[in-house]
Amino acid sequence: MTVTITASGILNDLLLPRWPKPSDPFEDAVWCGAMEAALGELIPLFNHGFHAAVNLIRELGLTSPVYELLLPQTVLRHVDAECLRLASPAVYDEVAYLRSSDAERILGRRTLYRLSCEQDPARTESLAQVNVGDLERILTPSEMEPFVRSSCKPARPKVVPREAAS
Question: What is the DSSP string of 19-75?
Answer without folding.
Answer: SPPPSSHHHHHHHHHHHHHHHHHHHHHHHHHHHHHHHHHHHHT---SS---------
